[in-house]
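Tip: read the tokens left to right.
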């Protein structure tokens, strides 16, 4: 899940983030729709799954765009069942090192190679929800990340949206 794309054609690497809000953490909190620390963890998981500079064709990653605002918007507009399922998947990945590697650490306390090993072992599980949890998180992260016009342009996704989603657009008070 973490790594480079093989045999991919080079694309235009010039990425203009001036139309986007600056990268920031989530601001919302809800007992049912994730507490603030869980939302911060979710953004960090997205940053691990979609890292900056992982591929020479795309210099930016989830840490460079307003994924915190994406998480707030996603949870504000999703069903309670979706929010609870997302929470379960995030906790499963966060605590996986305890069971997969038998180390008393969270996912963030691992080296990059150990993180990749944890994700690979989860992917090989015979239990459906365990196997699919990392894929669900990556899919949701990509939903926000690839919904941004600068990312679409850099990846060669057409048609490119004419404006960023409301959660990513600059507010009137931002420079």
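Filled-in amino acids:
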């Amino acid at each position: 899940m973490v790594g480079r794309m093989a045999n991919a054609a080079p694309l235009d690497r010039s990425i203009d983030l001036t139309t986007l809000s600056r990268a920031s953490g989530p601001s919302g909190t809800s007992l049912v729709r994730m507490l603030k620390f869980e939302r911060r963890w979710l953004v960090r998981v997205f940053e691990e799954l979609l890292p900056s500079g992982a591929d020479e064709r795309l210099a930016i990653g989830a840490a460079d765009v307003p994924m915190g605002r994406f998480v707030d918007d996603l949870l504000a507009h999703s069903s309670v069942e979706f929010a609870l399922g997302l929470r379960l998947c995030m906790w499963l990945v966060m605590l996986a090192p305890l069971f997969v590697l038998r180390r008393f650490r969270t996912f963030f306390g691992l080296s990059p190679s150990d993180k990749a090993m944890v994700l690979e072992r989860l992917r090989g599980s015979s239990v459906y929800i365990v196997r699919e949890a990392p894929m669900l998180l990556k899919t949701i992260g990509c939903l926000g990340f690839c919904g941004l016009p600068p990312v679409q342009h850099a990846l060669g996704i057409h048609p490119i949206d004419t404006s960023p989603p409301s959660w990513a657009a600059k507010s009137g008070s931002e420079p």
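The chain has six helices and no strands. Residues 76 and 124 are 32 Å apart (CA to CA).
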